[in-house]
Design a protein that fits this description.
This protein is mainly alpha-helical and 330 residues long. 77% of the residues lie in helices and 2% in strands. The protein has helices at residues 2-32, 39-64, 72-88, 93-116, 122-141, 154-157, 166-184, 186-196, 198-203, 208-234, 245-255, 267-286, 291-329, and strands at residues 146-147, 159-160, 164-165, 236-237. The strands form 2 sheets. A two-stranded antiparallel sheet has the order 1-4. A two-stranded antiparallel ribbon has the order 2-3. The two termini are 20 Å apart.
């Protein structure tokens, strides 16, 4: 009970720190440019959060389970291409969306096959798959993209009260659903277990390969849905879209307290990380910082987030080792 209480206190303290950091970033850029919190700017931040947020949901679950998918952005893009191609072929909107979701599920199964059956690291597999999906997308679209129109665009262009975009609402719903799944369901607990200690999880009756397959398929499906929403918002399925999607999602997840080493994190921190990352990126644009400096700043933020997580992970490992030594003495 003491360990659980201590862990809960640490997580709450980290969430509070992140919330304060996000508030400071927002206040700083508001002082620099009073238009930063205008209706258009807030809507722009929400639109940006909708894609990175969808991808971060799937990535967070993968990271908690001890895996990673660097092809997430490419999967989102290709899902949008599949949907747009289906619409261009005259298929109804629901059928086109289902086609994109099926692609996402297949993409997840492919990743799981390489990881579970061929025992190849997910880091390596997904780098390769990212290049494959990007190349295929350029080939299928003739490097020009596929335009979409009509009722499908309402998925990406309508907004509640004229401010909250539909894609943001979808992303928020996914965050809530997966927060519940991680906290209150057997599969959620299994994800934490295999991410924390795969061997121990196996001894308790958890099938790591089954859980790994589920989280990869889940990630592919979520990425594809994100790609569909992005296509509806941009009016085109662009093979160059979501190029940095995976890195943005990883940065937001790690900023929000999801452990890169697996076994720790949640959707609440993920949302705060998303807010902090997207407020930072949009703030850089609001103060008219040159694009190349924006890229430098984003890269520096990612390095800082990963460095903090690395040292946190080392600290956790030392604590676990110390506890193990104490148990052996007894």
């Amino acid at each position: 009970m003491k360990k659980q209480s201590a862990l809960t206190a640490i997580l709450k303290a980290k969430s509070l720190t992140l919330t304060v950091a996000a508030a400071v970033v927002i206040l700083f850029f508001y002082i620099m440019n009073r238009e930063f919190l205008s209706g258009n700017s807030i809507r722009s931040i929400m639109n940006a959060m909708s894609l990175s947020g969808m991808l971060a949901v799937g990535i967070s679950i993968l990271l908690i389970g001890g895996e990673i998918d660097l092809a997430t952005g490419a999967e989102a893009m290709f899902g949008g291409v599949v949907c747009a191609a289906a619409l261009a072929a005259g298929m109804p909107i629901p059928v086109a969306i289902i086609a994109a979701i099926l692609f996402g599920a297949v993409a997840g199964l492919i990743n799981a096959f390489f990881v579970n059956v061929l025992n190849i690291m997910s880091f390596i597999v997904t780098i390769g798959m990212s290049s494959i999906y990007t190349g295929l997308a350029y080939y299928l679209t003739n490097a020009k993209g596929i335009n979409v129109s009509g009722a499908f665009l309402k998925l990406g262009t309508t907004a509640l009260f004229g401010i909250i975009p539909t894609p943001f609402i979808v992303m928020a719903v996914f965050l809530v659903i997966y927060a519940f799944i991680l906290r209150y369901t057997d599969i959620g607990r299994a994800v934490y277990m295999i991410g924390g200690n795969r061997a121990a999880a196996r001894l308790t009756g958890v099938n790591p390969k089954r859980v790994t397959t589920i989280v990869f398929v889940n990630n592919g499906v979520i990425a594809a849905i994100g790609g569909v929403l992005l296509t509806a918002r941009m009016h085109v399925a662009n093979p160059g879209a979501a190029a940095s999607g995976a890195l943005d999602a990883i940065a937001a997840s790690v900023l929000g307290g999801v452990s890169f080493a697996g076994g720790a994190g949640g959707m609440g921190g993920c949302f705060i990380g998303l807010l902090l990352l997207n407020a930072f990126i949009n703030g850089l644009m609001a103060v008219n910082l040159p694009t190349y400096f924006q890229l430098v700043a984003q890269g520096a933020l990612l390095i800082i987030a990963l460095s903090v997580e690395y040292f946190n992970a080392r600290g956790r490992q030392k604590r676990v080792a110390a506890e193990a030594r104490e148990l052996m003495k007894k």
